[in-house]
Amino acid sequence: MHGEIITIGNELTSGRTADLNSWYAAGRLTASGLSVIRITSVGDDEIMATEALRRACESSRFVIVTGGLGSTQDDMTCKIAAEALKRPLYLDRQMLQKVRQYVEAKGIPMSPPLEKMALMPEGARMIHPKGAACGFSLVQNDIHFYFLPGVPEEMRYIMDAFVVPELLKLYESPPVTRQRILKLYGIDESAVAEIFKKLEGKAGNVVFGFYPRYPENHITMTLRGADERSVTEALDRVEEAVRCLVGPYVFAVGDEEMEEVVGRLLCEKKRTLSVAESCTGGLIGHRLTNVAGSSAYFQGGVISYSNESKVRILGVTPKTLSTYGAVSAQTVEEMAQGVRERLHSDLGLAVTGIAGPEGGANEKPVGTVFVGLADPAKTVSRRYRFWGRRKQIKLNTSTMALDWVRRHLNGDPFLPGV
Amino acid sequence: MHGEIITIGNELTSGRTADLNSWYAAGRLTASGLSVIRITSVGDDEIMATEALRRACESSRFVIVTGGLGSTQDDMTCKIAAEALKRPLYLDRQMLQKVRQYVEAKGIPMSPPLEKMALMPEGARMIHPKGAACGFSLVQNDIHFYFLPGVPEEMRYIMDAFVVPELLKLYESPPVTRQRILKLYGIDESAVAEIFKKLEGKAGNVVFGFYPRYPENHITMTLRGADERSVTEALDRVEEAVRCLVGPYVFAVGDEEMEEVVGRLLCEKKRTLSVAESCTGGLIGHRLTNVAGSSAYFQGGVISYSNESKVRILGVTPKTLSTYGAVSAQTVEEMAQGVRERLHSDLGLAVTGIAGPEGGANEKPVGTVFVGLADPAKTVSRRYRFWGRRKQIKLNTSTMALDWVRRHLNGDPFLPGV
């Protein structure tokens, strides 16, 4: 079933913003077995947008449009939709009330530009997720149109919660297509490619996809078959074969993020965690607290960016720092123990390293990182060398540290001393 | 001068790869005063690609095409170009030799699929940067077509070294176009739009662009003129007029990020900073340490996610917590003072709030946030209400907190008690 995506906004055609909305939508649709034949971005330009929408009517069965639903003069998607699909605009009472509630809660007075947000093409059906921006859908000549907000978080939420499920219900007759994603960490891109050669010809009709997503590597397995059950069973068998080859590196199946995996395991095992971050500067805590409900297991932590903070707040001894340096196994282990004791958590996780671009030395070049983990019984640490620029080193360090917690909670023998 | 961009590849329509080529090209063209009216991505599909190219002929003066120039079966851009522009393919001897040199250097034998790479549409002019992949250009009906490789590094190089200079030579009559970006924070999107109405007709030929970049708002001012000096002076005058209207909200000119502005000011004023983060969970520290050299002014901080950590590490009194709650002015002020004293920094910055989705209450709903700042003389705080989902509330809170430091260091009277 073919469809297309239209994204509207001057920020796209001027190159101020990369079009990640169409990337996201295309990925979700493709993973669901729906096919995207074209992605068009136009500015906030009535003629260009109307033309794109009209053209979509000629070749597509579904059309996803994002952007231009706000209150400013630039936001004219409703008007464009009305014009391209030849439907008059009307004031949608329900939408008007949503807009009014929203702005009044913010203490903003209602105004004509805000009222304009409730002018919808006739026949529009509102999509209104709780507590978020609205979109709307329309059906014309058996083509399904979805108009979504341009804010990526809102667009993604509506896409996942409304659009994809509805399209699947509409278009999915047998055969069915299912995709499974395995997320890997700790294995090189080229090593993954080598391993996959071994699977060639042994996985039936399963189509593999391979996506480096720094510092992770994602593998997709897509299969089309007569029914849900047979496809799922076949994917189970292939997943098992893949896990035989790369099992220890698989940290998640599906969309789960590393921090969500760690959070889920901490909940399941009823453990609490605290962090002591030097070179990551707060990124590990940030990622952990991106997960709703993380206060159940995350006690907090210390960003010990200076030597002084390592001593004063974490209790690292000045002698350790002067003898071994701030970037050392001894320091990272004292950091992990220190934060665990001070925050009364079951586990204490610590990182220290050189994120660069300055601060490297011969025996400890930029990218040198120590990870440490303390539990009630013992403290372990290991030295790593990461590559790339400052933000990449921070990101890789944070993923490695979180992966330590995952492995520890899984009793994974890969971890030193576990 | 209007043009458009067409990107070709299944990886784009399947959502495997975000289309950063068109983003890059659009940014370079716009910054050079050329206007992009449409970006189209299609798969490796002859019909869709040919149609996109034909349509471009109807509305554009220049067309940038990327992708599909390789040797695999999927790569059919030359064929598509020949068909859409009705020019026969011929074997380009020069291109054939380039291909042969390239593959032989890599130790690969020449083969028919490789020879296919030298089949070019009649009239094509090769673009062959030294030691890199080739592209080609074509002129038809006064429309300039550029066909570039899809590999981002190669595409960017050819774009900068060949395409933009050539287009500027062709189309730039009064020779210069300059763009200036102002970044605003703390002012609503609709308020910015209102204010901009006041500037209409008062800014000569300056073209304004307005880009919400949550939680910031960016304004671009683009001007074309006879020479660098007159354009720069005109932009200076317009910037001054804009600052009269929204000055206190402008935190940066150009590409500088909020955390870079804060870092620069801390360096200039020779002050140090520490942070106590509750609802942001480490994000403020993460942003501050994304800036190279931040260890010169950032002492570190405490992620006081639990009440216990607020008491044990920051010295918030249990009585404050029980009387006013963890999300209160009293608590955030004690957090700011506590981290400042414990980390021996000049400034102590603190946030506490409810990022949701759970944890809201009637008098303190989700999105309620307190920001506090302590300096040697006094401690101030203020209550805010942010909107959106968990990650948006975290992001907005971190930007507000960083903006407090910026305003404080600038002696901005907007800040309470400064």
Question: Could you please describe the fold and organization of this structure?
Answer:
Two copies of one chain form a homodimer. The first copy, chain A, is an alpha/beta fold and 418 residues long. Chain A folds into three domains: 2-171, MoaB/Mog-like domain (Molybdenum Cofactor Biosythetic Enzyme, Chain A, 3-Layer(aba) Sandwich), CATH 3.40.980.10; 176-253, Alpha-Beta Plaits; 260-409, Maf protein, CATH 3.90.950. Chain A has helices at residues 10-13, 20-31, 46-59, 77-84, 93-105, 112-115, 152-171, 189-197, 228-246, 258-269, 283-289, 307-312, 318-324, 329-342, 390-409; strands at residues 2-8, 35-42, 62-66, 89-91, 119-121, 125-127, 135-140, 143-148, 176-185, 207-213, 216-225, 250-253, 273-277, 298-303, 347-353, 368-374, 379-385. In chain A, the strands form four sheets. Chain A has a six-stranded mixed β-sheet, sandwiched between helices. In chain A, strands 14-13-15-16-17 form a five-stranded mixed β-sheet, sandwiched between helices. In chain A, a hairpin with a 4-residue loop joins strand 16 and strand 17. Chain A is globular. Chains A and B meet through helix 1, helix 2, strand 2, helix 3 and strand 13 of A and helix 2, strand 2, helix 3, helix 8 and strand 10 of B. Strand 2 (35-42) of chain A pairs antiparallel with strand 2 (35-42) of chain B, so a sheet runs across the interface.
